[in-house]
Design goal:
The chain is mostly helical. It has seven helices and two strands.
Length: about 120
């Protein structure tokens, strides 16, 4: 099997640097990021709050099947992603597979993808 590299970054700048180096490779390795809601949430209310992680969790929380903020989950981006099966739907999955445009991505790429497709990047 091919070697697997696992690395941890403490700062956004370290992630950007590593992704830039991965993009320079002649092949596209598979990559995954584990990032907090704070950086990825597109909900307009959440973006204006101080504690984004908690606000994002509250915006998507439901009580007895009814969203606290309206809609199915209270977040139109999450509702749309779930409605279309994003990113696991076959027509979307290829974007993240080896050779796809998002096979190597950083935080800004995920946020831009979420904004463009109206899907939750988290």
């Amino acid at each position: 099997p091919p070697p697997r590299v696992v690395w941890i970054a403490r700062t956004h700048e370290q992630i950007q640097h590593a992704v830039a180096e991965l993009r320079r490779l002649p092949y596209r390795p598979l990559q995954a990021l584990r990032i907090s809601r704070e950086r990825l949430c597109l909900h307009p209310f959440v973006q204006r709050t101080r504690d984004r992680a908690t606000a994002c969790e509250m915006a998507t929380m439901t009580r007895h099947g009814v969203a606290l903020g309206g809609g199915l989950s209270g977040c139109e981006h999450l509702d749309h992603a779930e409605a279309i099966g994003y990113p696991n739907e076959p027509s979307q999955r290829s974007r993240f597979e080896r050779g796809g445009p998002l096979a190597v991505h950083d935080i800004e790429d995920l946020v831009a993808e979420g904004a463009a497709t109206l899907t939750c990047p988290y």
